[in-house]
Amino acid sequence: MLQERRLNSRGEQYVVGPTGTPLTLRDLPPADTNRWVIRRKAEVVAAVRGGLISLEDALTKYRLTAEEFIAWQQAIDKWGMQGLRTTRIQSYRD
């Protein structure tokens, strides 16, 4: 679901991030991220859903597969941010 485009006081487009705070392009995880903690995964999902970055750009920038990204989205939809915990993934499976 795409959110309405919003601009901050600096004129930067932002979306509401997973913690409820504004999330701009410069707030996104760096392209060379190797350690995907819950918050970083949720930020990328929020950015794509909010139209801040396209899915294609996110997949390329973060070297993700479409399946991996979709799994993140589904985990958030079903269990919230805690569903993104890789160490607990078995607890959240059907």
Account of the 3D structure:
The protein has four helices and three strands. The chain is mainly alpha-helical and 94 residues long. Strands 1-2-3 form a three-stranded antiparallel sheet, covered by helices on one side. The longest helix has 14 residues, at 66-79. The two termini are 25 Å apart. The model is unreliable at 88-94 (pLDDT under 50). This is DUF1153 domain-containing protein. InterPro entries: DUF1153, Trp_repressor/repl_initiator, WH-like_DNA-bd_sf. It comes from Brevundimonas faecalis.
How would you briefly describe this protein structure?
The chain is about 40% helix and about 10% strand. It is mainly alpha-helical.
Euclidean distance between termini CA atoms: 25 Å
Tell me the strand percentage band.
5-15%
Helix content: 25-40%
Helix and strand run: EEEHHHH
Average of the residue pLDDT scores: 88
Structural class determined from secondary elements: mainly alpha
What overall form do the CA principal axes indicate? globular
Number of helices: 4
Q: What does the largest sheet look like?
A: 3 strands, antiparallel
Give me the count of strands.
3
Radius of gyration: 13 Å
Order of strands across the biggest sheet? 1-2-3
**Uncertain residue ranges:** 88-94
Secondary structure: elements and pairs:
Layout: E1 6-7, E2 13-16, E3 22-24, H1 38-49, H2 55-61, H3 66-79, H4 89-92
Antiparallel strand pairs: 1-2, 2-3
InterPro entries: DUF1153, Trp_repressor/repl_initiator, WH-like_DNA-bd_sf
Protein name: DUF1153 domain-containing protein
Organism: Brevundimonas faecalis
